[in-house]
Design brief:
Layout lengths: L1 H20 L21 E5 L7 E5 L3 E2 L16 E2 L35 E5 L5 E5 L4 E2 L8 E2 L35 H19 L1
Antiparallel strand pairs: 1-2, 3-4, 5-6, 7-8
Length: 203
């Protein structure tokens, strides 16, 4: 009889734990604090006990995760990929992906991260930083975002708040598009010419 009462106590404890798992974050005040440590990129963090890491990232319109074909299973990934045209042909070919080390954990955010032309380093419990190679920069200057060359961003990326500045001058025609300026050092010659012209007209 004693052994069956142990099972009943264990069952009651497990039921109590499972009942609290369905509580909203309003009833569990410490539960929502996980979102203070999470960077969802261009998305919003929502605490969720049903998720693998206790939170989900809900992407803003125009942004997606690194692995769109597995979006539902990997809803903890940050929203860092813009849904706009990206032209990789202007960038050097990416080096082949290194083999995954045997000791790398699926709990390491760099296991899932896409850093483009950069390398990933873990910086927080739930975060990573993309360190860009020379000539590349993080999207929106946010270190959790992948590294791209400015030439890869299409003009439709501007609707997402990504600054896309294109140079309209051709490198071969640099001398054809020069502006004239009056620098203070050159201004005195104009004054001398005007005074000379006024004196000539006066005589």
């Amino acid at each position: 009889m004693v052994s069956s009462s142990k099972y009943v106590v264990l069952l009651v404890v497990l039921l109590a734990v499972s009942a609290t798992a369905n509580l909203s974050p309003n009833y569990s005040p410490n539960f929502g604090e996980i979102c203070n440590e999470v960077n969802c990129g261009k998305g919003k963090c929502e605490a969720s006990l049903g998720s693998q890491f206790g939170f989900k990232c809900k992407c803003d319109s125009g942004w997606s995760r690194t692995r769109p074909n597995q979006d539902e299973d990997l809803d903890f990934l940050p929203c860092i990929i813009p849904n706009c045209s990206l032209d990789y042909s202007c960038m050097p070919a990416a080096p082949p992906a290194p083999s995954v080390p045997n000791n790398q954990s699926v709990f390491d955010p760099c296991y899932y991260a896409y850093c483009g032309q950069g390398t990933c380093s873990k910086n927080l419990t739930y975060g990573q930083t993309c360190n860009c190679n020379p000539g590349f920069s993080n999207l929106l200057n946010i270190t959790a975002f992948p590294c791209f060359s400015e030439c890869a961003l299409g003009s439709d990326c501007e609707r997402l708040g990504i600054n896309v500045s294109r140079s309209t001058s051709d490198d071969n025609n640099k001398d054809n598009n020069q502006a004239t300026s009056f620098l203070p050092g050159n201004f005195h010659w104009i004054g001398i010419m005007l005074i000379t012209a006024l004196l000539a007209v006066r005589n």
